[in-house]
## 1
Amino acid sequence: MMLKKIKKFVLLLLVILVIVVLFVTSYVLWIQPIDSHTSVSYTHLDVYKRQVFYLYLFYLVGGK
């Protein structure tokens, strides 16, 4: 029983860590000046995909 609680807690920590990392990287993408290698549309699409991923993660955590 205790092992199950610890496992769930570790999983929750991992999800929070992933979300924080993704938020930081998407924030950096938003404020980063567009260089010659990436186009504006690609960067915005990337951020959009990440936001959809966060929503999916929140849905997964909320659903359990």
Note: Residues 12-31+38-63 form one domain.
## 2
Amino acid sequence: MYETSARLAWERFAAHLEGHGEGLFLAVSDTPLAQVARDALAGTAEARGFGPDACTFACLRRAGKALSPDDLAFLVEGLDPLALVLCDRAGTDTYRKALACADRADAQLSNHGASSGTSRLQKPADQDDCDGERTAEPHAAAAPATDRAAATSASDASDASGASGASGASGASGEHPRKGAPEGRDQRSAFEKAPELLPRQGFCMALGRPVVAFDDFGSLLSTPALKQQAWALLKRIPARS
């Protein structure tokens, strides 16, 4: 089924895609990345265990057309990457809007018999957390460990009552059970909460998928110190055994 959904994504957006056909490690940018940036991401993918030449590159503006948030949602949910890197502000902003469209994209894939209702990570949709800075300045590194722990604790507390129903959250409706919930508890669905979790620059889990967002990835490759800041975020992507 993953092969079917990936094929649908490639058929629909072939003009905007390059690289590995399986889409396990997906990098999204507004315009085509410079070769040095592509090489850096390819090296990261290999270092994290995805293998050589494992990157798939998606460009929002190409061939005289710009991908909409709905388009990007279909592309990402179709490829269903195990890691997603948003390389610039436009990519991050578009994906933030795309997260709100992810339930519709999943429904479209279901209509083609290509959606399983869960990602390849097999992680319930409501178990999202964020370790980046949602309002970080450009080139900011990930949040300190103490901040990450506090953010994760707060996320776990707010999601505890809904975790049992999370596995169905990526179905066609994207609805979340609300009846009988404690007063004041955030009972929004994972699709509704996910856009708020995505940092401007940082690491987070969005709909069970590790995401690294950059304000301008290419600019971080200009000096060794900035490269270290980029690597500090990229190495948060779970390594494949």
Note: Residues 116-182 have pLDDT under 50 and may be disordered.
## 3
Amino acid sequence: MGFGYRITISSNPATCLQRFEFPLNGQTFNAIGISSLDS
């Protein structure tokens, strides 16, 4: 399980970030996404 999780994180760091940051700090992640798109 842990090993598979590591592979997922390494393969898709962006997806990992979304899955963790979004539920933990939806507003923060949303602000970052808006800033990235705006830039």
Note: The chain has three helices and no strands.
